[in-house]
Amino acid sequence: xxxxxxxxxxxxxxxxxxxxxxxxxxxxxxxxxxxxxxxxxxxxxxxxxxxxxxxxxxxxxxxxxxxxxxxxxxxxxxxxxxxxxxxxxxxxxxxxxxxxxxxxxxxxxxxxxxxxxxxxxxxxxxxxxxxxxxxxxxxxxxxxxxxxxxxxxxxxxxxxxxxxxxxxxxxxxxxxxxxxxxxxxxxxxxxxxxxxxxxxxxxxxxxxxxxxxxxxxxxxxxxxxxxxxxxxxxxxxxxxxxxxxxxxxxxxxxxxxxxxxxx
Length: 263
Description:
Helices cover about 10% and strands about 40% of the residues. By secondary structure, it is mainly β.
């Protein structure tokens, strides 16, 4: 099932994407709801990001081959984490499929990278849940692009990681929340820039599982319905420029598409 969020008469509403239409729902996708008989043509409404989280949690050093890639680039040994590396990003950076990624003014950073990622959407409150219980607290999954500005002088180093990924428009998420993906730890992820493949990996290359991330995060903070964990990026991270079309596809979910523009 594909849960969408879109704008009707200036109001954000949830619905279901089915049979080529957006069907309205009564209730909330994080609780009890029923589908209505009101259908909208996707071309007649504005698609919004399917999530508006209280917490947007990101994962660092997630994929083995990406760690290997970075170690080779820097001439160092690969350093695999023994626990998930989590940090916060600003929920206000989230935009929808089809929205523009707005580059910061020229000269304010060295370059801006794309990072295709699987997004976990929490479905019900989670605090100190076990790995075995973790998926019971997940509503579904979406595609994310953890866009990252590199080399901003005043937010460099460890302290600047979350902020450099939290600029306005820097976290596209969508196109919907898919509730039925099969095994989230075995999904192909492909990122294309202007049709050319930049990343081609599988969530099976993550050092930790989706269950690990949900369980570990819930042992530190309370996760609420609608919270999002973006699970890190595989190898193939690359800079983007004005005019680029970034398309990130994940098996059984869909494709997130955003154009890069200059602010």
